Recover the amino acids of this structure.
């Protein structure tokens, strides 16, 4: 192959354009307010503690990046009360684009400046991040996933907050039976996330009339909707991430097919409920976060007040509520450390978190159990929001 | 058998969308010789602009659509005039890398400007599905199918039977000779980028109500659009339309009768088979060169 002068000039132009692209991708939204740890442990100084976090601020799952605002709001609320043991809390959040290699790269950047990590998002990304954190003894609190692998041979540095996906699957299956649905269909994503939830549905004793697994790359869900309709199902359990959920709901609407919908909390965003051109009478969602409209709930009220005060430009969404809950657990562990604050003493502090009331429920840890929340309940979609079941 | 035809009809709506996206690709390729990998991202920006016009400027849907098309043409024209023209004589690899770079750049910028949360835009035609010969089809799908066939035929007529089309075909055959013949090649190529971006924009506007509008919305649609263009014969407008419908229907039937997990795999297996039998696609013309 020969390269003439024009080609070389062109290539240079391409590299320049690429550099601009990378710069924009890199600047993305990196919420950083860190101070590098020069004290006895990385991320710890005499007056501050820094946590790290990798979340998708860009890419297909960027919506989950809203959870950072919840962590920041909780940290800000704690800082307003004087911090923890005289130390202010900082968060350095980096964009992982929902991609394991990027998450690993960003985690390596965070390690020298963090005590531990909080609210890392995604099943595959968490798995990759754990491979880096575990050998170095760096604590990870509240990965935003309930994938089964996190609950099998849990490493001592990992503190789960989310309930295991099988708990949610079982809840959805039980709810379908209690509602007296005669024929139930299940649509689930063909990966660890979907399979774990589906296993839970089967564990409830429900015998689905029709089961379809989908690939996350699928765009047209009309054949799936048609198959459920042909099978005569009166309820569909949807175990999917938001984008396919919206596409599937629209495909059902296009066929004038209106079964009862039971959905995973992972896709519980307002757009999922309002996406359909037709109003579905019955949509239910498994949840560990209570309905955010229920301001009679003290935890909900504290969360919403802090979000409005400290993160006024961020949406008060279920994703932010996830981050808030995980930050509550991370801070509770910190409060339990009495002597020198190191990663090892922080892990011991987390081990002794007991009967902690969070927005998402009660959390108990011990040196032998790092299971977080274990209770879930059903909420109902009404007016584009999640509300208590009527 | 009833179910089979319902699956076929169900695939026509998305098929029309793939066809529109493929038309945009093919139109640009026909005149400029560039395969624009950024077309999906450019189309998404057009749709996000439409969303802003609807929700922030408060324009009615039809007016917002027309304005979005004008903006699409400006984006396409700008991309060619400012970026592509500088490397029009560069190696194909350079052009490919540039359009891939543009894809990343535009998606990143769109995320910063509009955010990543899925947004809703209305369908051009709303309403419950209607019963046509005992098969259900939505008014919106009927609209998509009609619009795709109509625009495909119109473009075919323009290309085959008008002076503008003749000039564009001359440019596609040999740009330098066309220029020597007095054809304003830069104008035509810029025009094809403008029109091609508008066509891709229509695809994105049509698909957004189904998928939820966000910066990476067209990534998967683009894969099917490329498949449609290749099956039809990369360079044939009618081929793009037929290819779009074929891919839409085939992917529906594979999902229904084989497995949704194998949808993409088998679509590409079909493409390999088609190209093995007809290397230039269903409607492509074999290039002939004189030694």
């Amino acid at each position: 192959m020969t390269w003439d002068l024009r080609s070389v000039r062109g290539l240079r132009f391409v590299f320049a354009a690429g550099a601009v692209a990378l710069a924009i991708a890199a600047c993305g939204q990196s919420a950083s307010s860190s101070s590098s740890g020069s004290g006895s442990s990385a991320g710890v100084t005499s007056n501050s503690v820094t946590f790290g976090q990798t979340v998708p601020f860009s890419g297909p799952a960027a919506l989950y990046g809203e959870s950072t605002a919840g962590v920041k709001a909780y940290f800000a609320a704690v800082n307003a009360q004087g911090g923890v043991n005289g130390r202010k809390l900082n968060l350095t959040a980096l964009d992982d684009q929902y991609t394991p290699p990027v998450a690993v790269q960003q985690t390596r950047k965070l390690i020298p400046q963090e005590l531990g990590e909080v609210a890392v998002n995604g099943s595959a990304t968490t798995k990759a991040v754990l491979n880096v954190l575990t050998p170095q003894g760096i604590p990870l609190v509240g990965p935003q996933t309930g994938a089964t692998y996190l609950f099998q041979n849990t490493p001592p540095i990992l503190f789960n907050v989310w309930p295991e996906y099988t708990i949610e699957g079982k809840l959805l299956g039980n709810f379908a039976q209690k509602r007296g649905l005669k024929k139930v269909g299940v649509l689930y994503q063909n990966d660890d996330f979907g399979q774990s939830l589906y296993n839970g549905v089967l564990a409830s004793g429900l015998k689905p009339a029709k089961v379809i697994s989908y690939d996350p790359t699928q765009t047209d869900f009309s054949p799936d909707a048609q198959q459920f309709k042909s099978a005569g199902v009166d309820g569909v359990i949807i175990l999917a991430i938001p984008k396919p959920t919206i596409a599937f709901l629209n495909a059902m609407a296009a066929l004038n097919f209106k079964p009862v919908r039971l959905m995973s909390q992972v896709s519980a965003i307002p757009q999922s409920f309002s996406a359909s051109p037709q109003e579905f009478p019955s949509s239910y969602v498994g949840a560990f976060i209570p309905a955010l409209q229920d301001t009679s709930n003290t935890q909900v009220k504290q969360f919403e007040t802090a979000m409005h005060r400290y993160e006024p430009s961020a949406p008060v969404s279920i994703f932010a509520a996830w981050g808030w809950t995980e930050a509550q657990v991370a801070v509770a562990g910190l409060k339990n450390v009495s002597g020198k604050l190191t990663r090892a003493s922080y892990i011991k502090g987390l081990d002794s978190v007991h009967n902690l009331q969070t927005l998402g429920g009660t959390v108990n840890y011990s040196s032998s159990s790092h299971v977080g929340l274990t209770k879930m309940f059903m909420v109902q979609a009404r007016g584009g929001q999640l509300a208590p079941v009527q | 058998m009833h179910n089979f035809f319902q699956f076929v009809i169900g695939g026509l709506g998305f098929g029309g969308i793939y066809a529109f996206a493929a038309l945009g690709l093919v139109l640009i390729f026909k005149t400029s010789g560039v395969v624009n990998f950024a077309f999906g991202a450019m189309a998404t920006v057009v749709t996000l602009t439409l969303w802003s016009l609807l929700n922030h400027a408060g324009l009615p849907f039809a007016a917002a659509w027309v304005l979005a098309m004008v903006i699409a043409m400006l984006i396409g024209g700008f991309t060619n005039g400012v970026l592509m023209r500088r490397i029009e004589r560069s190696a194909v690899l350079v052009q490919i890398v540039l359009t891939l770079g543009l894809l990343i750049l535009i998606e990143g910028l769109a995320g910063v400007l509009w955010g990543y949360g899925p947004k809703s835009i209305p369908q051009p035609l709303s309403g419950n599905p209607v019963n046509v010969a005992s098969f259900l089809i939505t008014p919106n799908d009927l609209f998509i199918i009609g619009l795709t066939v109509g625009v495909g035929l119109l473009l075919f007529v323009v290309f085959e039977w008008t002076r503008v089309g003749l000039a564009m075909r001359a440019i596609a055959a040999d740009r330098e000779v066309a220029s020597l013949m007095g054809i304003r090649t830069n104008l035509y190529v810029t025009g094809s980028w403008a029109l091609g971006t508008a066509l891709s924009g229509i695809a994105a506007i049509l698909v957004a109500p189904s998928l939820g509008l966000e910066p990476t919305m067209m990534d998967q649609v683009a894969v099917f659009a490329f498949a449609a263009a290749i099956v039809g014969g990369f360079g044939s407008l009618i081929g793009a339309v037929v290819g779009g419908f074929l891919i839409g229907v085939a992917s529906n039937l594979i999902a229904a009768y084989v497995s949704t997990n194998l949808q993409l795999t088998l679509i590409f297996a079909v493409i390999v088979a088609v190209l093995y039998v007809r290397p230039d696609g269903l409607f492509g013309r074999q290039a002939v060169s004189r030694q």
Summary: The radius of gyration of chain A is 22 Å. The first helix of chain A runs from residue 5 to 27. Chain A touches chain B through 57 residues (CB under 8 Å).
